[in-house]
Amino acid sequence: MARYTGPKHRLARKEGVNLLDKASQSLMRRLNTPPGIHGKKRKKRLSEYGTQLREKQKAKTTYGLLEKQFKRIVQTVRKQKGDTKELIVSTLETRLDNLVYRLGFAKTRYMARQFVSHGHIHVNGVKLTIPSYQATVDDVISISPKMQTNSRVIELFKEEIEVLPYLEKKGMSGKLKRLPKKEDLQVPFDLQLIIEYYSR
Fold first, then answer.
1. How far is residue 48's CA from residue 56's CA, in Å, rounded to a whole number?
2. Alpha helices in the chain (DSSP H)
3. In this predicted model, what pLDDT tens digit does every residue of 132-172 receive, in sequence order?
4. Which helix or strand (DSSP H or E) is residue 141 part of?
5. pLDDT tens, residue by residue, 37-46
6. DSSP single-letter state for residue 169
């Protein structure tokens, strides 16, 4: 299945989650109204399966993953010891493209994925072009020297962002201090329903 490349507003309204760094007031007002001419009609009550499916779709959309990628993550962590919900969050959050986004090196995860794919991101001083690379504790993520002089990147770094507790940011580089925990952030989807979906 191909990755969705259409309008982000439409996808955000379909899943009911904000996919943009700074969503317009118009989008936020319509976030819970599905796109299309029938969007304002009363929603049908979803079945248990339908509810689980919607939560799974929200998670995939939020992190920009394909079904195969997301299913592999859930199935892998379910075999590991520990809190499955926390392991899912940790795995999603330590993807390289997500860390580039969380550190404020890109406005959206889509932009972060492009930066990585185009070779603009280094991990421990080495260029990496794999957005799904799983970072480990103490990995240092930085913008390539060439991109550090890019006007778009310079503008990005003029904006102050709140760095999450498990990250450390210094200039145009950042470090994964520890693995993320559930309480570090609020995800816009229900992890329990996602686990149930893949347990069928």
1. 13
2. 8-15, 25-30, 48-63, 67-78, 84-93, 96-102, 109-117, 151-156, 191-198
3. 999 999 999 999 999 999 998 999 888 888 999 999 999 99
4. strand 140-143
5. 655 565 667 8
6. E
Going by their DSSP bridges, the two strands 173-176 and 140-143 should be labelled as antiparallel
Give the whole-angstrom CA distance, residue 132 versus residue 161: 23
Residues 15 and 79 in one domain: yes
CB-count exposure of residue 68 (10 Å: 0-12, 13-18, 19+): exposed
CATH number, domain at 165?
3.10.290.10
Check whether residue 99 and residue 140 sit in a common domain.
yes
| Alpha-carbon span 28 to 6, nearest angstrom | 19
Rg (CA), the chain: 18
Q: Per the domain annotation, does 86 fall within a domain?
A: yes
- For residue 9 the two structure tokens come to 């507003």
**pLDDT given at position 45:** 78
pTM greater than 0.90 (yes/no): no
- Residue 77 structural domain: 8-90+189-198
Domain count, the chain: 2
| CATH code of the domain in which 45 resides | 1.10.1050.10
Same domain, 174 and 117: yes
CA distance 139 to 130: 15
The answer to whether the beta carbons of residues 113 and 5 sit under 8 Å apart is no
